[in-house]
């Protein structure tokens, strides 16, 4: 009977996830605030239903009360996030908040399932929930800071100095982990500075390009950006190095509109990749595993091969929670969690996660395009590119589309540094969303003031006209809200 319930539940979960994902894009077609609110409320209902069914299924499969306690704690945290954002920041993007909560939910479901097989059952899930709570605290503080601190565009070299020093400390003093120097362990918690430095890097590039796009300043900015990337390459943190490189190229092209800079950057990137392949054996191992994971199954290709087996086993609808073997994939909670999700919850569920990430990126671009302050515009663009490219690197690596870079899937993978940095990133975006709303409100007030002056002048010129004549009543328009 339990097996029948598990098999039926996976189809219900997929339907709920697909309905939620559809609403992420249908909301862009809603022109009125009331319609948008109905869609957002529907998303919340779908998300809480998905949580309940997934955790109830896992409880039936494992018969462990700790799963129900984790469900209750997660539901309370997600509910608190939605309510607090509504109370503290009524003007934030509710779609981004809902997407953030849904991605956290998907990650917690799979981390709970995976941590049931650990030496300390559900310890990983409990730690992840603590990271979520800490991240929410940061995420609620950051928007007001972005709105109030008007001097952020002045700290160009502070961002570069702090970020470069943090990366250099990792390159010099961090211990090797999986062939790369990623961070430090403090009180049993691994801290990965590159996750936070990428935010400082975006602010550095944005403030530098906001100050000037003359050739001399472009050269200086490029040299400092290249130094960040070089330090990461020396640390063999290739995923972070790729993110920094791509983010800089995108921001540089948008700021200058010079294709020559982009072409030169891509050429330099290709040459650097070739040099890195010949200089670092770690890169050669990753490429070898990518080219033929089955042929190198007993060695470097084992991880990628197990990932592909998991995705193939799950097929479109998955095997059902607790019905697969995702624990056979090394470091599955961090680098390969997408493979575990597709094995037990199905490829359709995995595609929905990708689409939710894309809808977040669309919102980031929407905010960037409509901001009037160029510094904030560059920041929104840089953070959006940073986010979506990390998603691409993670999913591309586990599906053998590109060599594995060891990146986490934001909000979904286990990890404190990843969770906190992504929460801060989304908090910054929400702050920029509020700034955009302030800009629109200011423009509307200026327009109303101009219209008032115009109407006063019109009344003065028609003062002596006949009082009789046709009168027209203004038809009240429905209230609209910008996405």
Low-confidence stretches: 466-482
Beta percentage is under 5%
**Shape, per Cα inertia axes:** globular
Number of helices: 16
* String of helices and strands: HHHHHHEEEEHHHHHHHHHH
Provide a descriptive summary of the structure in words:
The structure is a single chain. With 483 residues, this protein is mainly α. The protein is built from 16 helices and 4 strands. The chain has a two-stranded antiparallel ribbon with strand order 1-2. A two-stranded antiparallel ribbon has the order 3-4. Strand 1 (176-177) and strand 2 (180-181) form a beta hairpin. Helix 2 packs antiparallel against helix 3 (65-88), helix 4 (94-115) packs antiparallel against helix 14 (347-370) and helix 5 (123-148) runs parallel beside helix 16 (416-461). The longest helix is centred in the C-terminal third of the chain and has 46 residues, at 416-461.
């Amino acid at each position: 009977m339990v097996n029948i319930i598990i098999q039926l539940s996976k189809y219900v979960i997929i339907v709920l996830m697909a309905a939620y994902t559809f609403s992420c894009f249908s909301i862009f077609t809603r022109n009125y605030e009331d319609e948008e609110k109905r869609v957002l409320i529907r998303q919340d209902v779908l998300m809480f239903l998905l949580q309940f069914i997934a955790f109830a299924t896992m409880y039936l499969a494992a018969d462990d009360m700790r799963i129900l306690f984790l469900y209750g704690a997660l539901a309370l945290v997600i509910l608190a996030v939605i309510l607090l954002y509504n109370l503290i920041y009524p003007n934030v993007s509710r779609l981004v908040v809902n997407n953030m909560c849904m991605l956290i939910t998907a990650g917690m479901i799979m981390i709970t399932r995976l941590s049931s097989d650990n030496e300390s059952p559900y310890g990983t899930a409990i730690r992840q929930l603590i990271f979520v709570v800490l991240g929410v605290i940061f995420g609620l503080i950051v928007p007001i800071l972005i709105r109030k601190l008007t001097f952020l565009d002045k700290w160009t070299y502070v961002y570069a100095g702090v970020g470069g020093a943090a990366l250099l400390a990792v390159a010099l003093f961090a211990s090797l982990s999986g062939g790369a120097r990623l961070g430090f362990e403090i009180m049993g918690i691994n801290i990965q500075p590159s996750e936070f430095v990428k935010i400082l890097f975006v602010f550095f590039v944005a403030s530098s390009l906001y100050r000037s796009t003359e050739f001399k300043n472009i050269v200086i900015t490029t040299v400092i950006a290249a130094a960040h990337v070089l330090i990461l390459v020396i640390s063999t943190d290739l995923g972070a190095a790729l993110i920094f490189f791509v983010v800089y190229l995108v921001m540089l092209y948008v700021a200058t509109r010079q294709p020559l800079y982009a072409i030169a950057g891509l050429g330099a990137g290709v040459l650097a990749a070739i040099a890195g392949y010949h200089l670092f054996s770690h890169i050669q191992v990753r490429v070898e595993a990518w080219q033929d994971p089955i042929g190198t199954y007993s060695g470097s290709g084992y991880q990628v091969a197990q990932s592909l087996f998991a995705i193939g086993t799950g097929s479109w609808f998955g095997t059902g929670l607790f019905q697969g073997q995702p624990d056979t994939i090394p470091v599955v909670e961090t680098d390969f969690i997408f493979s575990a999700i597709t094995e037990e919850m199905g490829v359709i569920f995995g595609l929905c996660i990708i689409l939710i990430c894309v809808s977040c990126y669309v919102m980031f671009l929407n905010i960037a395009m409509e901001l009037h302050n160029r510094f904030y515009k560059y920041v929104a663009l840089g953070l959006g590119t940073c986010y979506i490219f990390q998603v691409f690197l993670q999913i591309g690596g586990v599906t053998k589309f590109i060599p594995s870079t060891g990146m986490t899937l934001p909000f979904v993978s286990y990890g404190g540094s990843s969770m906190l940095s992504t929460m801060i990133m989304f908090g910054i975006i929400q702050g920029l969303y509020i700034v955009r709303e302030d800009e629109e409100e200011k423009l509307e007030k200026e327009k109303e003031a101009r219209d008032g002056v115009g109407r006063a002048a019109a009344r003065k010129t028609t003062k002596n006209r006949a009082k009789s004549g046709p009168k027209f009543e203004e038809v009240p328009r429905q209230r609209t809200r910008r996405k």
